[in-house]
Amino acid sequence: RAMAALAALLPAQTQLEYALLDAEAAPQKEDLVYQYLRKVDGLQRDLTVPELGRDLQWLNTEGPLSLHEDLSGKVVVLDFFTYCCINCLHLLPDLHALEHQYSDKDGLVIVGVHSAKFPNERILDNIKSAVLRYNIAHPVVNDADATLWHELEVSCWPTLVILGPRGNILFSLVGEGHKEKLFLFISVTLKFYKERGQIKDNRIGIKLYRDSLPPSPLQFPGKVTVDISGERLVIADTGHHRILVTRKNGQILHTIGGPNRGRRDGRFSEAAFNSPLGIAIKNNVIYVADTENHLIRKIDLDSELVSTVAGVGIQGVDREGGAKGEQQPISSPWDVVFGNSVSGSQEDDVLWIAMAGTHQIWALMLEDGKLPKGSDLKKGVCLRFAGSGNEENRNNAYPHKAGFAQPSGLSLASEDPWNCLFVADSESSTVRMVSLKDGAVKHLVGGERDPLNLFAFGDVDGAGINVKLQHPLGVTWDKKRKLLYVADSYNHKIKVVDPKMKNCATLAGTGEASNVTASSFTESTFNEPGGLCVEESGRLMYVADTNNHQIKVLDLETKILSTALPILNPKPSDVPDHQSVQSDKTANLPKLPKSSPNIQLPSLTVTPGQTIQFLLKLTLPPDAKLNEEAPNSWFITAEDNTWLLPGQCVSGGIKDVSCQTLIPFQLPSSCLSTEAILAIKACLYYCSKGSSACMMKGISFSQPLQIANTNQGSLTQVELTYTF
């Protein structure tokens, strides 16, 4: 049986892991994995995975996949994930990289297994938006009853299970941060089974969910900017891999690139980008952060030509830079903004770059000049300005010692007393300032004091460190009012910050991800807005409302939000018709892990119509903390006595384990039997403080009832206590 499979592999894999720690060189490590595979592959009976139900909802495929038929002859990585677990998201770049290296033709297939049994019927929507937002291009199955999770006795997220070509289990990896081991295991496994002729090179029917979205003029627009006259907008139409230049009424003036991803310089009609984000315009020149091509591109509106000014087209790991732009590898540039060098004679002679991939701020010299605290630099040089490259929320007077965490938005306030760059530092959920006098990096709002804690997020207005944001992706400076606006992306809000007082308040959005256009800012809603800009006059703000596929226009004087900017006369973008994905059936109650204890309570005598109050008091292990992002819940079932349940509240959330949860239950006034059993169950998700993984644990209390017509009191209390 599969149930014992992960446990059965444990001794052998643990032995392998210890041997790998002692191994110095790569060939030695590969040989150890090879020997391990010989052993596991030679077992009398394969440890196999049970079939994944064909009746489950699949995304990114032409139809349901069978592990033992469609995926036989493949090395399969099962990624057990849940969309609310941050560790799972941290694993995705590793899987992306793995997919880049090996395709289904090479014999590798990754399958995301979404296993969390939440009492939440919007689960499929959440998975869909995660698949889109994190650009997950492998098949994903919604294992809603967590069948496979229970069968394999997986215990936490994320867990990777690696299967051989017969569906035979070979390895498992728990938690994040195993990239090197993952690549080692996969490369040796593919080699091992290719030598034995067991790998098939057929293609798997991939049909990306994002390709089935209805056509719209914009798709996931990530950033928007306005030129100095206020008459022209530049929009990064990220999902269509193109840049649009429009009039302020939405009339298209230029379409550059798209609708397919690619990497080509040249005339507007033949140029190609790959998920472009940040844009900066001056006169008739636009600079573009061509994010997934790892390039900075230049668009000349006069000659109608696109060229590359920095990057080599593959992800760089260099954290220093200093070469001429087109020879300098860079990594996932997310935003760009013009600025001035210290000694330069020309305005806007530097292009500042938010280099999300290496967690740094870089500069591209557009003329000869000097950066704060730096030496003379030649035109065209591209180099790091601030950030060590470590992913952290570290402020420091020395720019190279400071640390950022996926900086994703930039705005310049060149006037005194500011004279700084504002940075939306998404993974630390903060806004930071970089002084353009001396490069010092300072905190403005959000996050917390520990530079290594990147989990200090939330949605709290206030001042300084007490403010909480969630993954802000954009900032823009309002010169007229001396205020900074922030796209607080995962809170679906626009915030306003007064840098003098360090105050932060909600300007627009309710916190709900939807698309309501109300005239008042605070009743309107957004869905992960990624960028924003304010025109020079300070009147209009434009917001790239990314997941709503539109640009929203906010009038900062009248405080009225007008509907989305109509994009007029766009070329028809090649997006296929909408294919509806099988609609989600109402999710039932969670299923507890197989290992959950069941506690038998002493029988209770009650009368019809009486109320029982269950007091649920659960205690977590000493160093554990409740994962509040997850749907911790209680629920009541009555297997053979369902007549007890109509009209009752049979489930609810558990927000806090430090106080008891009150669960009232009223017996019907006419009872169909004199005996019944109620089950009160609870499902908790918690993370141990030092670890990179989350657990799901369950507990069930069985309460036998004797129903008598004696005249008992109207209320009985029953305590339900358990320590995990």
TrEMBL record:
<keyword id="KW-0963">Cytoplasm</keyword>
<feature type="domain" description="Thioredoxin">
    <location>
        <begin position="43"/>
        <end position="191"/>
    </location>
</feature>
<dbReference type="Pfam" id="PF13905">
    <property type="entry name" value="Thioredoxin_8"/>
</dbReference>
<dbReference type="InterPro" id="IPR011042">
    <property type="entry name" value="6-blade_b-propeller_TolB-like"/>
</dbReference>
<dbReference type="InterPro" id="IPR001258">
    <property type="entry name" value="NHL_repeat"/>
</dbReference>
<dbReference type="GO" id="GO:0005829">
    <property type="term" value="C:cytosol"/>
</dbReference>
<dbReference type="InterPro" id="IPR045302">
    <property type="entry name" value="NHL2_NHL_rpt_dom"/>
</dbReference>
<feature type="region of interest" description="Disordered">
    <location>
        <begin position="571"/>
        <end position="598"/>
    </location>
</feature>
<comment type="subunit">
    <text>Monomer.</text>
</comment>
<keyword id="KW-0677">Repeat</keyword>
<comment type="function">
    <text>Required for normal embryonic development.</text>
</comment>
<dbReference type="InterPro" id="IPR013766">
    <property type="entry name" value="Thioredoxin_domain"/>
</dbReference>
<protein>
    <recommendedName>
        <fullName>NHL repeat-containing protein 2</fullName>
    </recommendedName>
</protein>
<dbReference type="InterPro" id="IPR036249">
    <property type="entry name" value="Thioredoxin-like_sf"/>
</dbReference>
<dbReference type="Pfam" id="PF01436">
    <property type="entry name" value="NHL"/>
</dbReference>
<feature type="repeat" description="NHL">
    <location>
        <begin position="526"/>
        <end position="557"/>
    </location>
</feature>
<dbReference type="InterPro" id="IPR012336">
    <property type="entry name" value="Thioredoxin-like_fold"/>
</dbReference>
